[in-house]
Write a structure and sequence with these properties.
By secondary structure, this protein is of the alpha+beta class. It has two domains: 109 residues, Probable inorganic polyphosphate/atp-NAD kinase, domain 1 (Rossmann fold), CATH 3.40.50.10330; 157 residues, Tumour Suppressor Smad4 (Sandwich), CATH 2.60.200.40. The chain contains nine helices and 16 strands. Strands 6-5-16-13-8-9 form a six-stranded antiparallel β-sheet. Strands 12-11-10-7-14-15 form a six-stranded antiparallel β-sheet, covered by helices on one side. α3 crosses α4 and α7 crosses α8.
Length: 296
């Protein structure tokens, strides 16, 4: 199938370090598909700006990296005429998996060259776009602790140590959630807001059946203490999370979350930590992001 014009590839510098010569490999693979690919290596806050500029001249802007890279590139191109392509180079690659984008680099490039576009939803919190989810509470603390440990440990070991340390000391967060004028206040270990509904039980834990439902799903655990979370995870893996009675799940298109005890908090936006001033104002943007996906 002919390539849909020139393609801009935004390659995360961290992914380029992990995958040696990935820039040359991508260039060769796109050329083999008949695509003229312009590869730009960037990192951090610059990813969004690079993607925004690329969207002015390319019909497809590719995010080559993990979920954080996908989120940043999506934020840069949304509202433009460009579609998002994904070459999954991260650890978890949730967004790619939920859209059935191949995890193999060659197959991912073939998918992009095919040019089949599907429009999906994104979420937004205080003008920050997210493609998967965002959360407050225990998870941002774990991520921050993990990042401090990364110099001397592997990513997974650093995550395990950080989780153990944070669970021992974290006391939870008090939130006031307002959905369509109906307010509820909870003390909870976390608030997780998903771009559409997440599976919280069984083998599909952490996946989504669709990203086109036009809704945000809010998950809180007001009847659980922080030290109960490992047990809740075990219950979720065997399909007993919903029946545990620990969770409150609310679906909405818009909502506001306030934290009465503090005004500036850490928010994990697709795994990246951002400091925000409360209240946090969320909304869904249905079918606002065109993504190149495999044909059914």
């Amino acid at each position: 199938m002919p390539c849909p014009g020139s393609i801009a590839v935004v390659l995360n510098a961290a992914a380029a370090d992990r995958h040696q010569s990935i820039d040359r490999e991508l260039n060769d693979l796109f050329r083999a598909c008949g695509c003229d690919a312009h590869i730009m290596v960037s990192a951090g806050q610059h990813l969004r700006d690079v993607a925004q500029r690329a969207a002015m001249r390319a019909p497809i802007v590719v995010a080559a990296g993990g979920d954080g890279t996908v989120s940043s590139v999506a934020a840069g191109i949304i509202g433009s005429r460009a579609a998002l392509g994904v070459v999954p180079l991260g650890t978890l690659n949730h967004f790619a998996k939920d859209l059935h984008v191949p995890l193999d680099v060659r197959q991912a490039v073939d998918t992009i060259a095919g040019g089949h576009v599907q429009r999906v939803d994104v979420g937004e919190v205080n003008d920050h776009v997210f493609v998967n989810n965002c959360s407050i509470g225990v998870y941002p603390d774990i991520v921050r602790e993990r990042d401090q440990l990364r110099n001397g440990h592997s990513k997974w070991l650093a995550m395990a140590i950080a989780t153990f340390r944070v669970l021992r000391r974290y006391g939870g967060v008090t939130v006031r959630v307002d959905v369509c004028g109906r307010q509820q206040q909870w003390r909870t270990p976390f608030v997780f807001v998903g771009n559409n509904e997440y599976v919280i039980d069984g083998a599909g834990l952490g996946t989504r059946a669709t990203i086109e439902q036009g809704q945000l799903f809010i998950y809180v655990a007001p009847r659980a203490r922080v030290r109960d979370l490992p047990v809740l995870l075990a219950k979720a893996l065997i399909g007993g999370a919903r029946q545990s009675g620990a969770f409150e799940i609310v679906a909405a298109t818009e909502l506001t979350i306030d934290t009465p005890r503090t005004k500036i908090i850490d928010v994990a936006v697709d795994g990246e930590i951002v400091k925000m001033t409360t209240p946090l104002v969320y909304r869904t943007r249905p079918e606002s992001l065109p993504v190149v996906v495999p044909r059914a």
